[in-house]
Amino acid sequence: EHKIKKCSSVIECAVIGEKNEHFGELIKSIIVAKNQKTLTQIQIKKYLRKNLNEYEIPQIIEFVDELPKNKLGKIDKKKLKNINFKNNININDNVTKYLNLINKIK
């Protein structure tokens, strides 16, 4: 989260784990961008590659208008885990297709 928040195009973000049947859990970042029309997942990943190891970079990146907050004004990560994101380019689906393809080749 700290590295993503340093990006000048990001207002706030949260990083959570998302369950995955093949890998156990994937890193998911939910971002509130200053301009969601111009900031892309690819730009975020390029920025993070300069600052993090590859295994630390979120596999899933979502953009939202706002993050859910609790009564104290802190990001409510439990609520985030239950939100179904409509703009998700979900790596889970790509991983499943890839693993199915590999199993067919074997």
Structure description:
It is built from four helices and three strands. Helix content is 32%, strand content 24%. The longest helix has 15 residues, at 91-105. The protein starts with a helix and ends with a helix. By secondary structure, the chain is of the alpha+beta class. Strand 2 (24-33), helix 2 and strand 3 (60-63) form a beta-alpha-beta unit. A three-stranded mixed sheet has the order 1-2-3. The radius of gyration is 15 Å and the shape is globular. It has helices at 2-5, 41-49, 77-82, 91-105; strands spanning 10-20, 24-33, 60-63.
Number of strands: 3
The largest sheet has its strands arranged as 1-2-3
Number of helices: 4
Overall morphology: globular
Judged by helices, strands and strand pairing, the structural class is alpha+beta
How far do the termini sit from each other?
A: 39 Å
String of helices and strands: HEEHEHH
Please summarize the sheet with the most strands: 3 strands, mixed
Radius of gyration, in Å, reads: 15 Å
Write the layout of secondary structure elements.
Blueprint: H1 2-5, E1 10-20, E2 24-33, H2 41-49, E3 60-63, H3 77-82, H4 91-105
Parallel strand pairs: 2-3
Antiparallel strand pairs: 1-2
